[in-house]
Specification:
897 residues; alpha+beta; Heat Shock Protein 90; six-stranded antiparallel sheet; 8 helices
Length: 897
Amino acid sequence: MNRLLLLFIFLLSVNLAFTKHIKKSFALNQIENPKQIIQDSRGQVYLLSDYKACAFGVNGTENVCRDFEQKIKELIIFEGEQSALAVDDRLQLYKNKQLQNEIFIGESIQAIAYFDKHVFIGTTNGLLLKYHIQNEKLDTLKSFEQAFINDLLVVDSVLWVAYDHGVAVFSAKDFTALTQISLPNKIVNRLLDAADYGVYAFTEFGDIYWYAANYDLLAHRKMKVKLIGASSHRSNSYLLAENACYELNEGLSLDLLQEGSFSAIYALNNQLLLADENSIHSLDVTQETITAVQDCFSVFAEDDDLLWVGSKGKVFLLEDDRIKMTINLPGKENKSRSVSSIYVSDQYVFAGTMGEGLFVFNKSGEFEKQLLIEEDNNQKNIIQMQFNNQKLWVAYLNGVISLDVEKLQVIRNHSDIIGSNYLYSIKSIDEDEFLAGTSVHGLLYFKNNKLRELLADRSVFAIERSKDALYVSTENDGVYRISPASLKAEKISQQNKVFSIHSIGELLLLASENDLSLFDPKSNNKFDLPDIGLNKMQFNSTYSTDQFIFIGYSNGVLKIDKSKLKALSNLSVYLFQPKLFNDEILTGNNKFSAKENTFTFHFQTYNYYRPENTFYKYRLLGLDSSWQLISQTYVNYYNLPSGEYTFQVAAGYAADFIPTEYAEFPFKIALPFWKKPIFIILVFVLLAGFVYAFIKWRESQILAKSKMERERLRFEFDQLKNQVDPHFLFNSLNSIIDLIEVEPEVAIDAVAKLSNTYRSILEYGKIDTVDLQTEIKLAEQYFQIHQLRYHDLIRLKIDNLDVDLGYRLLPLSLQFIIENAIKHNQIDKKHRLTIKIYKEQDYLVVENNIHAKKQTVASTALGIINLKKRYAQLSAKELIVLKSDDLFIVKLPLIYG
């Protein structure tokens, strides 16, 4: 058995209808006796019978149905796109129309309710259970012995349980028992949320019990009808009986809404959906039509139930939609006679006509007097009447007259200030202050016998005064708002030929000849009420009381409840839980990491009358504060930077609407770790430490280099000093002189070598390193000069060295060691000096035998120390000095490269 409910859904588009008159119906060919209609937050509709579930396309087309083998008990919808379906002994959970889980209960389910991630389940055996959606745990809460659980209702975190013979109330959070209401011999089979008024409990035998939020019984009534269904929205409650649909009032009285045999009901905003075996019907509950009188030219309401209507040659008094009295205008009957305006005082009924002046009757309907027939013919055409400051202001074709309503006398005639204009409307402000709408010269403002012309060169039709402003309609230039203080005019709407304007709080009801519209001056939202057959409305065919607006037209009088009409002006937007990378965000989560920065926002509104005229505006505060117009119902944001944001979305009936109410979702994207203050501080500290260490290292390098330079200079100076030592130079020159006569060629060669030695001191003494081959050559050259004196008493042995490996030494270091060996040893035929140079691993070893002189020679320890320091700066290996009884060894580190 396939238990997957194909929940194909649709947005049901319906039109405004008369109360007691169904306006629109959709045929059903595939489902019999539907028992439940329900809409989700998107306006999508589900229709269920005992063994079938159906969904319908717009206007009832493209319907899709699914049969079930087991009995469907109830469907509930929660958190936007999630739902729970009770099918006999199983609970099915859906998300985004996909079956997520199926739970076997083991008992036949009778009712379900949702609260905070839990589904409460009531069974036919009296078991009350709770299923935890997140941890998939089923708990038994209570057992009502020998009783059915018939209905469950959660209101303000309180769980109401209807069972046979009573009602039990628990905390929905922790299931603490709050109260137990016992109703012996009564089977409570339905509960209904009464919003701020509490909860209604209905019994199988027609009783209504009204309980307050503190569980006290407020009222009880026995109905004369059998209850089939019930539904509520906000503070409005509706009942479905065998042959009619009713509105349940606060005093438990029933107002008939629609006759007919229906099997299911659902209320949302001011719209009722009713289902029978053949159709889904839409029913508007904002207004009713009084059809006792036809051709209504003018209306005046003494109170909400007592209405005076002017028609063709007659005035009717209606009470509760019934004609209580008919007044015939005196004189010869004429089909063209019409009562153009009505005013009713405590004593008299004033009926203005077109062409016959003003008729006055007493409250019993007896004729008293006919006024405004003695002057020119223009006064016989009464346009409008308004009572203010103990005067009845009467606007006729081209003037204004003020009347004493008790003495029935003219106080003043203002025809001299109107001129040749035709006058359409009048609005009295104070004792001698009024506004007049004219056909040519716009709006005339009269005060203290002074006239001021506003909205010149326009035809002004209607004038309305609200708490803070004046509103004026024109024939061809829209609707204006005028400041009472400065009299500055501002156009607020492009709608033309508005015959009357009525303020409903901050809203305006605009009535033209054949249609009505609601307009919000703050948001520019204009809601056109659908075509309901209104036609031939006149300048005085509308009248407003505190609660109702009465609109007369050719087929009767439309009575509109202001409080219910207000709900139509603004489109409430439902913002679904946003998605992060196409994954739905958990409810309550609005903090995200730096990588979680791509969002999709879905939203929907309820525009059942004009779904094609719905416009959306959105913005993301923190990124852009300007509103963006859009027609689709979703918005994507990609790679948002870190920061705090608030997504806002509003809906309106026009593209130029100004958002005043909106749904919003605040959220925060965290900084990446490398932008967090602690990381920045750490980096700054590390950078500062690095800079400090670098500076110290640089200082040490400079000092070391300076020190090395000083030591190098000292070494060069020592070398130069040694080489220019008078003894060395004197001995070398003497040896050369001795050779000049004997071996002149050798002498010349010796002079060249001596010259090269001093040149090498100057040339190589200024560089850091010299290649091994050059250093060996310099050492041999230096040694040969000493051989001029010592001949074969000194010997230099150099092993075969691989000078092509790129080894380097400190310049003149071998010369320094050779000079040191000659200087500190006794050299004669008995004590010959042998100096050996050879390679040992990464060292160049200089070794000489020791025959110390008997006379002490100044030590060269300082020279060796300086040489060590210079090598330490150029090589990781240190210079090694070894001394024994017969050998002195110096190991010079070979520097590669």
